[in-house]
Amino acid sequence: MTLLVPFDGSELAEAALVRATEFAAVFDEDVLAVTVIPKGNARYARKRDWLGDEEPFAMQPIVSKLHEQVVGLASSADFIHKTVDKYAPSGSISTRIRKVAKREDVSMVFIGSDNAGHLVTSVSSVGGNVATDEAYDVVIVRNRSPAKIAKLKNASPHRHTKSDFYLPD
């Protein structure tokens, strides 16, 4: 089975990835980070700091940046990206993530969300939709600092380098 992390590059997605890696070491499972990218949507990409203010949208540099970020935090994790239409609603993004979870026989999903303290349904629209699937357990990561990401990154027993690299569709 696999532990899945919807990964958008944010601090909380980083924390979720590190937590998933910690769990994976205990449960002897694989970690899969998945990013869903709306094709050609520079505004969406800029909002997530995937692009600079004047940088044109280009899929390969975005995927490369996210892949490097994943491997830098959890070198044993696999990384894939999926695409949706330019102005796809968040429901399309969460549907892609749930399809990956089903295909990969995911046992747990680690969602980074700072507004998940009250009800799971209050998680951001993508996270909330992913969390509603009963096929896997959900771990909501609300804090950036408890895992001490930089320290764990360097101390992880799973620091072997992945040679896999996933290029855009």
Helix content: 25-40%
- Tell me the overall shape: globular
Please count the beta strands (DSSP E, at least 2 residues each): 5
Distance linking N and C termini: 25 Å
Gyration radius, rounded: 15 Å
Descriptive account of the structure:
This protein has 169 residues and is α/β, with parallel strands linked by helices. It is 39% helix and 20% strand. Helix 4 packs parallel to helix 5 (125-131). The longest helix has 17 residues, at 11-27.
Short description:
The chain has helices spanning 11-27, 42-47, 59-73, 90-103, 125-131, 149-155, and strands at 2-6, 30-38, 78-84, 106-112, 137-141.
Sum up the structure in keywords.
single chain; 169 residues; alpha/beta; 6 helices; 39% helix; globular
Task: Set out the fold topology.
Layout (H helix, E strand, L loop, with lengths): L1 E5 L4 H17 L2 E9 L3 H6 L11 H15 L4 E7 L5 H14 L2 E7 L12 H7 L5 E5 L7 H7 L14
Parallel strand pairs: 1-2, 1-4, 2-3, 4-5
